[in-house]
Amino acid sequence: MAAERCDYDGVKLRELLQKQQHGALTAAQVHELAGAMPEQYRPLITFLADTGLRIGEALGQRWCNVNLEDAWKIAGQTAIAPNSLLVRENGTRGERITFKPRA
C-alpha cells in the first residue's frame, strides 16, 4: 500500500492509503478458504462464491424464489428463469428487508 502525505498552507493531512485492487477468488482459492473454515460454514462459503450473492442476500433467500428446474417458474407475479434464483430480500441483524421494485 502506498502512502502519501500532503501539506496545504501549513495544514498537515493524515496519510492516505491506496487500496490494492484484487480480482475474484479462483475456484482453488474458494476451496482453500472453505477448507480453512469450521465445517458448518463450508457450504455457505461455496454457495456465496458460486452464486455471487452477498451474505445479506443469501440470508434473505427463500425457497419460493429458487428455481432448480429446467423450466420457467412463476413466483407470485414474477417469472424466475430456469436454474436460477430471485433476490427479493436482504437478511440483516435478524430481520428481513424486502427490496422495493424499481419503477
Account of the 3D structure:
The chain has a domain at 62-103. The relative contact order is 0.11. By secondary structure, it is α+β, with helices and mostly antiparallel strands. The longest helix has 10 residues, at 27-36. The mean pLDDT is 81. The protein contains three helices and ten strands, in the order E-E-E-E-H-H-H-E-E-E-E-E-E. The protein has a two-stranded antiparallel ribbon. A two-stranded antiparallel ribbon has the order 2-3. It has a two-stranded antiparallel sheet with strand order 5-8. The chain starts with a strand and ends in a 5-residue tail after the last strand.
Layout of helices and strands:
Blueprint: E1 3-4, E2 7-8, E3 11-12, E4 16-17, H1 27-36, H2 42-51, H3 55-59, E5 66-67, E6 73-75, E7 78-80, E8 84-85, E9 89-92, E10 95-98
Radius of gyration: 21 Å
Number of strands: 10
The SSE string, one letter per element, is EEEEHHHEEEEEE
The chain-level structural class is: alpha+beta
So how many helices?
3
Helicity, as a percent range: 10-25%
Characterize the biggest β-sheet.
Answer: 2 strands, antiparallel
Strand content: 25-35%
Termini Cα gap: 42 Å
Rounded mean pLDDT is 81
* Strand order in the sheet with the most strands: 1-4
Q: Uncertain segments of ≥5 residues (pLDDT<50)?
A: none
Rough outline: extended
